[in-house]
Prior knowledge:
The protein has about 100 residues and is an all-alpha fold. It has 5 helices and no strands. About 0% of the residues are buried.
Amino acid sequence: MWRIVPREESSPGDGHHLFGDRVWPESRLGFGGAISGYILSLYGYVPNAAQSARALDGIRLTMSLFPALTFGMCVIRLFLYSISKEVEAQMTDELAARRRGAT
């Protein structure tokens, strides 16, 4: 992949690959907030009101289980991340050679 696209040093689970470079970080934050709001609305959350038991359960899940699940997905993705120290060294050498040739 480093042979055809510019080098990017970001973690594989930071959303960078999911949303791409052209989406501003603020947009990603807004997207995350919209997802949280949508999940809360599914549980019957009503702002500025006393919450039902179901809405309170939704709040608890939104603040505990759902983030834990997404963290778990990122951990799994890290285990599947195929760049080893040897591949990183190869990438660094090839990119340095490309830069020397481009100047």
